[in-house]
Structure formats: C-alpha cells, structure tokens
Amino acid sequence: MFSATLHRPEVLAALYIFAYGSFFITLCSSIVLYRLSPLHPLAKIPGPTMHKVSKLWSVWICWQGRQHTEFKAMHDKYGNVVRTGPNEISVIDPSAVTDVLGAGGLPKGKYYLARQDERAPSNLLTLTGEKHASRRRVWNRGFNADALVEYDGILAKCAVELVEGMQVDSEASKGEVDLTAWFNYFSFDFMADFVFGGGSEMLKKGKDEKGILELLEHHMITGALVSHIPWFFYLGNKLPGVTQSTLKMRKYASEWVAGRLRKGAEVKDLWYHLTDEAAMEKDKQPLMNEVIADALVAIVAGADTTSVALTNFFWMMLTNPAHYKLVQEEVDRVYMEADATDISKQSDLKYMSACLDETLRLLPPGLTGGPRQVPKGGRQIAGYFLPEGTQVYLPAYVMHRNPECFSPRTNDFVPSRWLSADSKSPSPNASAVEERKHDRKAFLAFSQGPANCVGKKLAKQEMLMVISLLMQKFDFNFAPNFDWERWPETMNDFLTTARGPLKMTVRSK
Q: Where do the TM regions start and end (predicted)?
C-alpha cells in the first residue's frame, strides 16, 4: 500500500520538489551564514549586512544610478574601508591609491571582463598585463605632444560649430538652451572627427537624428548592471535583444571605419596612430578588428566624460557667481585681442584651470569607476589583508570628499586649493593658504598610475578651449523656472555619468 502510494506521480513530484527545495535552502543558508561569519576573510571589514550577503543589492543601487551617493553614505558611517559586497570592498584611504592603481598595483578583473563581448576583440579597457602595456604604447603615440598639435584644427572647428549651433538654438527658443544636449553633440562630433576624420554632424543639425546618444546611454547602463553579476553577461549574450545596443554601435563603427578607409588620412587622426600607419610597431602590426574595438572605446569614453565635465563646470560656475566673474575676467584679459581657439594662451588660464580641477574634484565624470581585483597570493591594502579575487573600489566621488584628502571646506567649491602659494591669479579664497593643502595623488578624475586616462592632456585642452570660447561669446544664466539647486540629483552613476537637461539662457555679447 505504502509502495503504491510512493509511486504515484503527484507524490513523486512532491518528493522531488521537497528534496531540491531542501537542497537549495540549505545551500543558500550556508552561503549566507559563511559570508556573515567570522570565518569569512573579509569579516573584519565593516559594512551593511545586505551588501555582505549578496551583490543583488548593488545591482538595485546601480539600476537607480545611486552608487556614488550610496558609497558616500556607507563611508560616512563605517569609515575609510567598507565591505560593499560578499567579496568586495571600497577604500577611500589615500595611502591605498598607489597600492591599487600604481605600478605593480592591482590588475583589472571580472568587473571589466563582463564588458568584453566574447564575440568581439578585446579593447584597451578590458586588457591587462603585458597585452595592455603593448596596446597602451600605440595609444600613447596618439596623445603625445606632436600628435596633439595635429588635433588643434579639428578641435577649433567643432568648438566654432558649437557656438554657431547654440546661437541658432538660442534665437529659435527665446534665448533658452540645454547645455547638456549641446555638450553631448559637441563631444561626440569632436570624437568622431578626432578618431575617424568625420561621421557625425550633430552640431550642424542641432540634434541627434540617429539616436546614437540614447543608444550609448543604454549600452552603458547595461554594461554597468552586468558588471556586478558577470555570470549574467554570458547568459545575456544568448538571449535575443539583450545585446541589441552593442550590435548597433558596432554597425555605426563599421560605417565610420569604411568612410575613413575611403577618405584616407587627411590629418594624422587617432585612427592613423591606432592602425600604425607610420609603421612604428615593427614586430607586430595592430589587427583591424582590434583597432575598431579601440576606436569605439575612444569615442564612447572620450565623448561622455568631456561632455559631463563641461556641463558640471557651467553648473558650478553659475552656482558660484563670484568665481564665474573671476573666470570671465580672466578670459577677457587673456583673449583680449585673440580668438579663444588659440591654444597657445591656455597656460595663462590659471584660475579657470583651478576652477575646472575643483569641478572635477567635486563632480568627477566617473563618479565611482570600476574596481580592481586582488591577484594570486593576496595583498595588504589599507591595513587589511585581502585574499585573491577580492574586488577593490577607489570611488572618486567619495575619495575627493574625504577630509583626509582635501580639507578644510571639503565639500565646498574652493578653487584656491589648486593654486600655488605664489600665484597672482585672483581668488575669493586667496588669503586662506591653509585651504590649498590637499593630497594630489588622491585626485582620481583621470585615474592614476600606468592605466590612467590616456587622453588627459587632450581633454584639458578641449575643455579649456570650449569654456573660453563660450565665455568670450555669451553671457549665461539659469533659465527661468529651472530647478538648478536639484540638478545634481539628476546624475546617474553607470561607470560614466548620465544626467538631466541643464537649462540656461544664453545672450550674445
């Protein structure tokens, strides 16, 4: 009787469900208990219980774009070292910068590998070790002093088109423009010209007809989410529609490449250097598919970060009118008898540079960035021994607001901290010498170490030219009824930074 009952289908199904359910409950419980137990190698590092248990909470925070503010809240509560995941920590101790990002520091790990489509070649962002060093050598030639001179004309052309486009838009909309949109158009057009010699005309058209910017944002959001759960990336590659944005971006890249190959090298653009047209790499020429992958990274990374920095700068200027006035006076003085596209005069823009650096400190384009991974053998970081595989964040937004790195008035806009003691540049804070004390190695707007931002010098030239030209041509004010005080809340942290419209009234001088 009992045997017959046992073999009934519904009884067997119930037994299977009970057995598998018991197994998974036991498995999950043991994992949770281990991650919370004193036996876990990161047990001594404080942090929220939910973060210690699972990365799913981090995915939710990332989805909302709140990673930078969440990390800030955790560090305010727990200190310089916080456990932000089962095998992940965040560090804002300035002593850890060299240990993590310096020569011999920590390599990139699974966070970046999740961004590497297995159907596509590797790129500079995902490479590590010798392969990264070899590829970085080619990139460096595209950003050395001689190469930067070649880009002056490209940059000036796009900057002038930005002014012209904003002028037309202002006249058509009763003086009101969206700086976020226009800086997006500018930075993308410039990167397309700089990398491929053309391919984008958003500035001339005053809009993104192909929806590329929306596509890029979708691509970055997807990448940010799957980087927290790398196993889902490989599953997602098998699902229809998940990689649609990536495939579309490759399509556009292929079109730009085809146009560049037809046109040839009119100037020594980045493509010229990445493909090694000068035959500097005698041992091994770069492969075409790798060059395309790197070129796409250059456009995505370069366009987004510059656009964000410019938008943040103008918001910061208008919320600090005393500093805006001083920057405007400096522009008028330096470019009194010259056009602001003259890069040779940028070394005289000392106060503007200080204001730009202070903007990058308070609102870095990469608010949190990606973590590095502890290699075999483990490492000692910020007083803790970390086992192999531990992910280590150095979140720029939080690091820059650590009083141990920048103080006093850590959360205030104080450009004078970037000026030398003997600087003759005017400043509302010029007498407060103590405010200039800060830890430069903790400034991570362009990262640090061998894998820092390869385009830092070009980005600074680009931003100084655009700011100077716009201030030479226009007066800016926040648009009526625009809630400028809450605008920073529109920033969403997806490795790069998405943000809402920045509405301003623009009046020609």
A: 12-34
Q: How many CA atoms lie within 13 A of 31 on its CB side?
A: 12
pLDDT at 2: 45
- pLDDT band of residue 225 (cuts 50, 70, 90) is confident
Q: Terminal CA-to-CA distance of the chain, rounded, Å? A: 98
Mean pLDDT of the chain: 85
Cβ pair 489, 367 in contact under 8 A: no
The number of folded domains in the chain is 1
Residue 247 predicted with pLDDT over 70: no
99/133 Cα distance (integer angstroms): 18
Which residues, in sequence order, are bridge partners of residue 19?
none
Q: Please check if 453 is assigned to a binding site.
A: yes
The answer to whether the CB of 62 falls within 8 A of the CB of 223 is no
Domain that holds residue 262: 53-420+435-494
Q: Would residue 42 count as lying in a domain?
A: no
CB-based contacts of 377, cutoff 8 Å, min separation 6: 388
* 480 closest CA partner among 503, 452, 458: 503
Residue 122 CB partners (closer than 8 Å, separation 6+): 116, 131, 290, 293
The DSSP symbol for 285 reads P
Q: Nearest Cα to 360, choosing from 295, 305, 320?
A: 305
Position 19 in a domain: no
For residue 313 the two structure tokens come to: 């700068």
Residue 121 belongs to domain with CATH number: 1.10.630.10
Average pLDDT over residues 143-169: 90
Tell me whether residue 112 is exposed, middle or buried, using C-beta atoms within 10 angstroms of its C-beta: 0 to 12, 13 to 18, 19 or more. Answer: buried
| Alpha carbons 47 and 80: distance in angstroms, whole number | 11
pLDDT at 367 over 80: yes
Is 20 among the domain residues? no
How many angstroms separate the CA atoms of 226 and 245, rounded? Answer: 14
Q: Name the residue with higher pLDDT: 10 or 416.
A: 416
Please state which of the ranges 86-100, 385-399, 435-449 shows the lowest mean pLDDT.
435-449
